[in-house]
């Protein structure tokens, strides 16, 4: 499995490479993910409390989710991959699915 890292100008693919985001290009799903996440942050505060509690226990994934949510609520920048990860986790919570992955 390849390590998923942020693109830098030095490692960014050519802008005309099909199926690959150019450096600085926003993921097409980022805007709808942001809207979805903002709605859940406003309407499901218990989710953030549960994530914060789990993060305090040292769960790495919860730490990432919580910090991403905190940054969004504070109006700080968040990369697409963090935003999309948080949106996916909220989607799983909303649909009652368990996240058994640990990375």
- Radius of gyration over alpha carbons? 15 Å
Q: Helix amount, in percent?
A: 40-55%
Largest sheet: none
In total, the number of strands is: 0
In percent terms, what proportion of residues is strand? under 5%
Continuous helix count? 4
Shape: elongated
The average pLDDT value, as a whole number, equals 84
Question: Structural class, from secondary structure content?
Answer: mainly alpha
Instruction: Note the gap between the termini.
Output: 12 Å
Point out poorly predicted stretches.
1-5
Descriptive notes:
By secondary structure, this protein is mainly α. The chain contains 4 helices and no strands. Helix 1 packs across helix 4, helix 2 packs across helix 3 and helix 3 crosses helix 4. The N terminus is likely disordered.
Q: Can you describe this structure in just a few lines?
A:
This protein has 103 residues and is mainly α. It is 53% helix and 0% strand.
């Amino acid at each position: 499995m390849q390590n998923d890292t942020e693109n830098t100008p030095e490692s960014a693919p050519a802008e005309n490479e099909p199926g690959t985001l150019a450096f600085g290009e926003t993921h097409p799903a980022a805007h709808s993910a942001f809207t979805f996440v903002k709605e859940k942050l406003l309407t499901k505060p218990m989710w953030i409390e549960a994530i914060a509690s789990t993060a305090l226990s040292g769960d790495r994934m919860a730490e990432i989710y919580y910090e991403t949510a905190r940054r969004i609520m504070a109006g700080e920048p968040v990369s697409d991959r963090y935003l999309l990860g948080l949106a996916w986790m909220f989607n799983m919570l909303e649909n009652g699915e368990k996240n058994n992955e640990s990375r």
